[in-house]
Amino acid sequence: MKILGIESSCDDTSIAIIDSNKNIISNEVFSQTEIHKEFNGIVPELAARNHIIHIDRVLKKCLRKSKLSLNDIDLFSATAGPGLVGGLIVGLTFAKTLALAKKKPFVAVNHLEGHVLLPRLTENVKYPYLTLLISGGHSNFYFIKNINDYIFLGGTRDDALGEAFDKVAKILGLEYPGGPNLEALAFSGNENFLNLPFPLINSKDLDLSFSGLKTAVLKLEKENKKKADIAACFQKTVSKILCSKINQAIEYCNKKFSCYKSVIISGGVAANSYLRKDIKKTIISKKKICAFPPVKLCTDNAVMIAWAGYERYNNGLKSNLKHRAKPRWPLEERKYLS
Ligand code: KG4
Ligand code: ZN
Fold this sequence. Notes:
The chain is α/β, with parallel strands linked by helices. The chain is built from 10 helices and 10 strands.
């Protein structure tokens, strides 16, 4: 079975084709990074217009590279939320139209579901598992019991981690997108030059908080401290916070849920190699299997949407063509939807 997925919830127009044997046949992305760079962030209206301009070309390129035609596709899936509503409507309508024209099923996918299910495609992870999703809009712990059965365990009370990376990068004068640029700068810094605050580190719940860190960085920048040192300290502190909370989450799930073997980290921030190294050590020390998607598939892509669409379809969770774009859509609500 061949599945075509479309992702357009933010600033990338991405279309991918995978098959039910877990092969990624093609994965095309039109990145709008250059378009939004001058605004130092994403302009929603501009993003939506560019999805419309480029989506048809991205589809053609994807089909050409995979040497397939639309007649070879058995299932169409698209991100229906959460995200920027203009872009969501473009991708969703495009996918519905293709499904209708080709008389094939359609599945609407929650973007977060795409991120958290992807390691089942790339790393063969088995249900159930614990996951930490760290992206530009979310920083949440979930226990993934099965397809469509997700339990929210805790999350950020203020900024998402990717958002914190982007804001700190901006304070340090780095270009958008901030996360990868901050990681690059941190390489040459001294991570031990001072200690930053550890918000919520002693709290018993699995909540996170990153806005205090951002304020601390702002203060250091005003004091003219070396930018690379600030970046390195910020990254090290984030890593310590995540590792401590992951430890706590594993212990909680060990008590609460029957045997689970894997802990997976997904979302754009999971592309950070410094964090990957520390987190992997932490998870292995707790005798769990640690899995990350490949770096290239941590940030937004349509492979994850095609895969989540396939998993849903395979479990009888086809969507109606009336499915709307949902700019706000918590993952755990999926339990009650089909
Ligand atoms: O998952 P994603 O592509 O989009 C959302 O669903 O939000 O995540 C994007 C976020 C951005 O905030 C970006 O700065 C961050 O992931 N990011 C990184 C790295 N690569 C991307 N943060 C830290 N280090 C990186 N290497
Ligand atoms: Zn994402």
